[in-house]
Design goal:
The structure is a homodimer of 199-residue chains. With 199 residues, chain A is α+β, with helices and mostly antiparallel strands. Chain A has helices at 20-23, 36-49, 119-130, 152-161, 170-176, 190-198, and strands at residues 54-57, 62-68, 76-82, 90-94, 97-106, 111-113, 134-141, 146-151, 167-169, 178-179. Chains A, B: Residues 1-32 are annotated as: Disordered.
């Protein structure tokens, strides 16, 4: 059975060779076809273990409709549906400040389509910004494996003021965003950028 | 089918008369058998709408094992299991600061059993405190309907240093905690307490 993540991405069991299009043209990053989510989870786990930050991905919200309670087994959910998240996927704390972000990947080379970021997520970003929280997006361009941290205020501008465009030109992300250092551990050292840009 | 929430609590569909033991002896709070979770969700929604804070309950984490993709219907999760949360249930931002809390209810009159707060949730609280975040617990004593905000540092002390006790004496919660004002809207105005105590 081919599983898909709630975002539609195909689940690739370990041991399977990843498709070429995911490995990109930059083998030095050691990415080897890991999804952006996996790299971020690894990074967040590193920050947790080293006591640098407490940032987690929120669980996928599901609408539970049916549950079985077998006598000698764990409760089994037998019917449930994926709900649209009303917030962004990642949040936590760093140096007392609230951190909030959404992570997206694209195969596009010249722009970032914002089609898969939804109204309530943008509304959430606006609310977080209003409350003085640190909000941004992490964008990965699969062809080059480049990862950028892009402040939410810029994204909100494009989403609200330039809706007809449907995407953000890459050079705006290059100019206003920040390239995230990649490595073995942590894989995507975005905290380094937060430290430099927001503190 | 009688559903239970992942915490074991029975799901009571709207329109069903709540059991007497849940209404407590303080009808002036207008509680009418609503769970602590429902009251907090209502309160958080109020804070969201009035632009006062952005605080949400995290979705229940589930381990998804099987999904159906019917042609003209929404994807249906056909097999999943409840996972133990690795963090507390509620978090968000208020005035730029990270807010994090767990909410628990007890029918006990003289103490608060901490049996249903788990090791990784306490570890999470410790990590949040280490990062300068605001962390606390919201306790409700069902018999009197009193709701207290109790800083996580006190809870951590009892959990770590007084493990044999298995519960926190109510007068410690009265002394070191803060009674949360209750009303119609917001139902449990804990933000008032945060403002006074942490800012």
């Amino acid at each position: 059975m081919a599983f898909r993540y709630p975002n539609g991405k195909r689940f690739i069991p370990s041991g399977t060779k990843p498709s070429k299009s995911l490995t990109g043209t930059s083998p030095q990053f050691g990415n080897r076809g890991m999804t952006l989510e996996e790299d971020l989870n690894e990074t967040n786990e590193y920050y947790l273990q080293t006591g640098q930050a407490v940032i987690h991905k929120k669980p996928t919200p599901v609408q539970i409709v049916g549950v079985d309670y077998p006598k000698r087994s764990a409760a089994t959910i037998t019917e449930a549906y994926f709900k649209q998240p009303s917030t962004t996927d990642y949040n936590g704390v760093y140096s007392g400040k609230y951190i909030d972000f959404e992570a997206k990947e694209t195969r596009n080379k010249t722009s970032f389509p914002f089609g898969n970021v939804h109204e309530h997520q943008v509304k959430h970003m606006e609310r977080v910004v209003n409350q003085g929280g640190i909000a941004f997006l992490i964008f990965r361009f699969s062809p080059t494996q480049e990862v950028y941290l892009y402040d939410a205020s810029h994204f909100i501008y494009w989403f609200r003021e330039q809706k007809e465009r449907k995407s953000i030109p890459k050079n705006d992300i290059e100019e206003k965003g920040h390239l995230v250092p990649q490595g073995l551990s942590p894989r995507l050292d975005y905290l380094q950028i937060i430290d430099r840009v927001y503190f």
